[in-house]
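Input chain follows. Return structure tokens only.
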Amino acid sequence: MHLNTIQANQGAVQPAKRVGRGIGSGLGKTCGRGHKGQKSRAGGFRKVGFEGGQNPLQRRVPKVGFRSRVALVTTEINLRTLEKCTKPVIDIQALYAEKLLSRRYKRVKVIGTHCTKPLVVSLPVTPSARSAIEAAGGSIKV
């Protein structure tokens, strides 16, 4: 198979309709638009979803869902990432300084189940992260 031999399937490509070319073409006079009405006129279009003045569907249906603004500044950080921190006490300022956390985040929670070095953490932690930190000889300051 070569690029210069590629062709469309038989009947896939049809010639364009030549409207307004006389009565014999089948698309003369009204050019397939029918008689009268908004759709037959030049520039006669309606907005998507327009229902002739009736309250449109997208306005009738109740709005659902909610995006928490707090969630935009909240994140989780893994214990394996915290092990890279060289500060003695790990808090949010230490994570900013070590560039382990973007300044966009104002709230952070420690997650994870595996910890190899003793960490002193001053952040909210999950129960599994708490047990992993304490098993490695670390502590949690609240």
